[in-house]
Amino acid sequence: MTGVRLLAIITTLSCVFLVSTSFLNLGRGINGGTNCAGCTLVVGLLEQLADVHNETIVKALERVCLMLPAKLQTPCDVFSEFIGPIILELITQDSSPDNACRTLRFCNDDGGRQCVLFKRTQKGYSKPHSTISKFLKKYPYFVSILHEISQTGDPKICELPGIKDICLWLDDVFNRYDPAVDLDSDGFSIAETLRGTSWRGRDCDDSNHSRHPGARAIDSDTSYDSNCNGIYGKDPTTGKAYEDEFCGQSQPKGIAVLGDSVSAHFHLPEEWFDSQKLSEDVFKDIVFILENEIDWPELSTATGHVNNSWPNIVHGKMDSIYQRLYERNRCNYGDYQNIAVNVFDIWKKQGGSGWQLIEPVDGFHTNQVAQALTAQVLWDNMLKNHADFLGPVNPFNDKITQIFGNQTRLSSNYF
Ligand SMILES: *[C@@H]1O[C@H](CO)[C@@H](O)[C@H](O)[C@H]1NC(C)=O
Ligand SMILES: *[C@@H]1O[C@H](CO)[C@@H](O)[C@H](O)[C@H]1NC(C)=O
Ligand SMILES: *[C@@H]1O[C@H](CO)[C@@H](O)[C@H](O)[C@H]1NC(C)=O
Ligand SMILES: *[C@@H]1O[C@H](CO)[C@@H](O)[C@H](O)[C@H]1NC(C)=O
Ligand SMILES: [Ca+2]
Ligand SMILES: [Ca+2]
User: Fold this and answer.
1) Among residues 52, 77, 95, 162, which one has the fewest Cβ atoms lying within 10 Å of its Cβ?
2) Which of 88, 82, 238, 232 is nearest to 164 (CA)?
3) What does the DSSP 8-state code read for residue 336?
């Protein structure tokens, strides 16, 4: 049974929703929430595929499955063997995707209402519980897993065999806010994904933590490139260091972006969920994209730095503040950092939970606690890497306080 691998692919995508929301410990939503939405999309896509290509579901799935990169294949097989027969039987019974997922218990009728994504078919809507039980009895292994899961809450797609491995991998990817490859621990990497160069400028020497993008040029970079802008050495005609000659008076400026709403560029390509647009090409880079948490920092407003090489799933060109800084002044090369969610990491290391940094009503934007923490992280980063922007601590501060108190006399705005 290899036919239902596509299901695993798409369910992988659903996992992404799950893992990305579960790392914030957000609520699961009603009617089964993201589990239900994921399942319904999967089954709906299966039905469409068979329809569009006028072939058996198994055939269609086999074809699509071949589009997947190797890394996702084994878990797909495991999952296919587990759930394939169940889904096939459900589809053969002509139930709508909503009902199929209700039968599988990924969707439920919270408060007596059912939320549906697809048109209700006459057949199969509002199946009585006895029919569902009879159906599930044929699949004791599935039921035993459902039962196990329901001890801890609702059935979760991430608990299913095969998908579990994918979710574990994603969990690992999604919980990492520092580069996976960083031999000298300076926060900069030579690998692209896993919080690497897609997120922050490339480390030009991963064995020396004094050399990284945004570092201060040491000895004017006469013999080594310590700020990783690619500029070093001496001009043989003037005898001056190139860093001094070309960059010294140029006021080079990098960009560091914090705060999820500004920097995270999370979105799922519609081509992954549309049976008519599925092709090998739209899945070609799915591993890379997942390893970047579907956040596309390399194409984002703030830190974008590569041409859009996915015209089939990302529409439009890249333009970014970093790109413009670079065009304005070549000395700014590589000096970008997309470090938004590090605030969550720091908070969690202090024993907090992600949801404590989110406004409870809109469920997305950061609250005052997060704003303050972001300011602290931003300040520390400035202090460490760009103290020259801030100017020195004024040695006369104490004297000023001595003479002028808190200076409120001169200002109508107390703070
Ligand atoms: C779909 O496939 C069947 C069997 O292969 C064939 O008889 C039928 O004509 C096809 N329908 C269309 C619309 O191509
Ligand atoms: C590391 O890089 C800095 C700056 O380029 C340099 O001064 C230092 O000697 C280097 N250290 C080693 C061990 O190479
Ligand atoms: C993007 O494409 C343009 C034109 O093809 C090319 O000149 C430029 O070097 C590319 N930029 C990057 C970062 O690859
Ligand atoms: C500043 O000083 C004034 C006058 O001494 C005092 O009334 C006020 O409470 C002080 N404000 C703050 C924020 O400490
Ligand atoms: Ca380094
Ligand atoms: Ca340099």
Assistant:
1) 52
2) 82
3) E
Q: For 193, which DSSP code?
A: T
- pLDDT of 404 reads 72
What distances in angstroms separate CA 167 from CA 174, 242, 245, one per listed residue? 10, 49, 51
Kindly identify the ligand whose nearest atom is closest to the C-alpha of 307. Answer: 3
Is the confidence at residue 124, as pLDDT, over 60?
A: no
Buried-state track 257-283, b at ≥16 Cβ within 10 A, e below 16: bbbbeebbbeeebebbbebeebeeebb
Could you give the angle at which helices 5-22 and 57-65 cross, rounded to 10 degrees?
60
Tokens of 288: 């890379």
Ligand 3 atom 8, closest CA: 307
- DSSP E strands: which ranges in 276-378? 336-338
User: Nearest residue CA, atom 5 of ligand 3?
Assistant: 307
* pLDDT reported for residue 306: 92
Three-state secondary structure call for residue 255? strand
Kindly report the backbone phi and psi dihedral angles of residue 108, in degrees, each rounded to the nearest multiple of 5, phi listed first: -140, 175
Instruction: Please give the Cα distance from 274 to 284 (Å, whole number).
Output: 16
**CA dist list (Å): 161 to 2, 12, 35, 110, 237:** 14, 12, 15, 27, 68
Alpha carbons 368 and 260: distance in angstroms, whole number: 14
**Tell me: the pLDDT tens digits for 170-190?**
777 777 778 889 999 999 999
Catalytic residue among 130, 207, 261, 412: 261
Dihedral sign computed on CA atoms, order 296, 302, 306, 311: positive
What's the CA-to-centroid distance between 210 and ligand 2, angstroms? Answer: 6
Distance CA 69, CA 317 (A): 26
What number does the ligand 3 atom closest to the CA of 306 have?
A: 13
Nearest to 61, CA basis, from 38, 80, 39: 80
Please tell me the distance between residue 4's alpha carbon and the centre of ligand 1 in angstroms: 22
| 261 is a catalytic site residue | yes
Interatomic CA distance for residues 5 and 63, integer angstroms: 10
- CA–CA separation, 17 vs 39, rounded Å? 12
Amino acid identity of residue 405, one-letter, is G
Question: Are the beta carbons of 332 and 256 closer than 8 angstroms?
Answer: no
Give the mean model confidence (pLDDT) for residues 304-332.
88
pTM of the model: 0.71
Given a contact cutoff of 8 angstroms between Cβ atoms, the answer to whether 357 and 347 are in contact is yes
Q: How far apart are the first and last CA of the chain?
A: 69
CA dist 35 and 410 (Å) reads: 59
